[in-house]
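Here is the promised in-class demo. Please do not try to memorize the tokens; focus on the logic of going from shape to residues.
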């Protein structure tokens, strides 16, 4: 609770509004119908993008925020563009026409969705892998890139089955993980590892980003289990993201203990 009090009011208000848009998604679907789904999802992703911009701007300044955000957006679009055309590195998949607008066959909401959790995954990595945990800065960087990749990919354990069930994209061949090919998760690990290795900022607003990771973990797992009829992915997402969250919290607690 004391940590939450240190979050800037504008950041806290933005996070609350973003969480409310996620909570409202099933309510809109029940009351209006599934035809509203692309609009509701789009609104949620846009609110999330604004929340991330506000969080980084308030936490580290607009210059640092843009140096983190703009590469994420471009890199995410480029990877999805290449992936949806070549099958590398995720496997053979294709976007449907449900999410609009699209550039090069990639919905513009997809890079914004990457922005939703990659910075939060970076904070998990910063908390798990500390500067004094390794003897050389290169190992620190590699360790943080590895942990961030795990934290980011854990989110897709729930996200991909949910988006496929909504018809946002399709896989050429059904895979072992609830219809998703395992190559998808290998691709997520490799891509997020390399991107983090290149672009991980040295300074981030840790508390609000950890809060965003925790909210995403809970609402994604809860929604999959009780609203979207995907209990299997819900369990894996709960354990995967929850395990990364617990790891980060335990590491922070141990770091704060007096010698």
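The designed amino acids, position by position:
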């Amino acid at each position: 609770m004391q940590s939450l009090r240190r979050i800037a009011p504008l950041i806290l208000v933005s996070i609350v509004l973003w969480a409310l848009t996620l909570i409202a998604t099933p309510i809109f679907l029940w009351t209006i119908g599934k035809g509203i789904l692309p609009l509701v999802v789009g609104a949620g992703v846009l609110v999330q993008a604004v929340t991330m911009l506000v969080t980084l701007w308030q936490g580290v300044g607009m210059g640092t925020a843009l140096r983190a955000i703009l590469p994420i957006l471009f890199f995410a679009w480029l990877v999805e563009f290449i992936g949806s055309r070549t099958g590398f590195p995720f496997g053979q998949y294709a976007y449907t026409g449900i999410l609009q607008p699209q550039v090069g066959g990639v919905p513009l909401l997809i890079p914004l969705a990457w922005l939703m959790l990659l910075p939060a995954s970076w904070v998990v990595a910063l908390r798990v892998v500390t500067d004094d945990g390794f003897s050389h800065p290169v190992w620190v960087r590699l360790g943080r890139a590895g942990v961030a990749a795990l934290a980011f990919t854990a989110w897709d354990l729930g996200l991909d089955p949910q988006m496929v069930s909504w018809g946002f994209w399709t896989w050429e061949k059904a895979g072992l993980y609830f219809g998703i090919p395992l190559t998808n998760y290998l691709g997520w690990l490799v891509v997020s590892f390399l991107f983090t290795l290149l672009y991980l900022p040295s300074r981030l607003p840790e508390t609000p980003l950890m809060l965003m990771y925790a909210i995403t973990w809970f609402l994604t797992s809860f929604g999959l289990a009780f609203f979207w009829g995907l209990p299997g992915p819900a369990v894996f997402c709960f354990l995967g993201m929850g395990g990364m969250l617990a790891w980060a919290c335990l590491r922070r607690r141990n770091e704060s203990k007096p010698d």
